[in-house]
Amino acid sequence: MNIPYLNPHIAVERLIKQLRAKGITSEEVLNALRNVPRHLFVDGAMYAQAYDDNALPIGGGQTISQPYVVALMTQLLDIDKDDKILEIGTGSGYQTAVLAQFSRRVYTIERNRDLGEASLKRLREMGYVNIVFKIGDGTRGWVQHAPYDRIIVTAGAPAVPAELGAQLAENGRMVIPVGDRSFQQLEVYTKDKSGIKKSIVDGGVVFVPLIGESGWKNS
Ligand code: SAM
């Protein structure tokens, strides 16, 4: 087998430079992306493209998210090291690993069993011990461990699932792409004593659909 040449140390620095130019300012977030070897989350045939700022296929019709979008959503979450995070849509586990760099615990849910189990195995082999994983419909959240300081949804939703709003802690923050199946906008929700406030991030994103009881009904 021909393994395409890649020097991850050089490639990741080029990527970090691009992310800075696109407006990622948090050094913590940039360092987290620097510390997670993205080439280990993609198929060997795609090693050479692992540090391009693009989404890539990971099988089952799903994708590993674009690094810029991973960085932007992580920056928007504004994570504190003591935060408990819920992630919906483990995918390859790349975003999960980025979150696990600087938060207390990440709970992550994936509906595709094959993808999820492969990602869990990868994350365990990489030594992550602060990630708790389950297979299931993330549109229902994970009530046993609620409330969460931060919630991130990495698939496109038709609307915010009510259960996720309910499982967000006071002073919590949720980032979720909302729109139709082909185009979404990132919405940021913050919760305080007086209720939940919403803001919309300029520009659009394209995610695979969030499928489930409080999401799209089929793929
Ligand atoms: N952030 C991931 C990464 O870095 O690799 C990519 C996530 S991928 C764009 C979206 C994932 O959400 C897919 O793996 C898909 O199977 C999953 N998904 C879709 N609906 C879901 C649901 N209701 N609950 C949990 N996972 C879901």
Features:
219 residues, alpha/beta, Rossmann fold, two-stranded antiparallel ribbon, globular, binds S-adenosylmethionine
What this model shows, in words?
This protein is of the alpha/beta class and 219 residues long. The protein has one domain: Rossmann fold, CATH 3.40.50. Helix content is 27%, strand content 26%. A seven-stranded mixed beta sheet has the order 5-4-3-6-7-8-9. A two-stranded antiparallel sheet has the order 1-2. The radius of gyration is 16 Å and the shape is globular. The relative contact order is 0.13. The model has no long low-confidence stretch (mean pLDDT 95). It binds S-adenosylmethionine. S-adenosylmethionine binds next to β2, α4 and β4. The site of S-adenosylmethionine has 26 residues, from β2, α4 and β4.
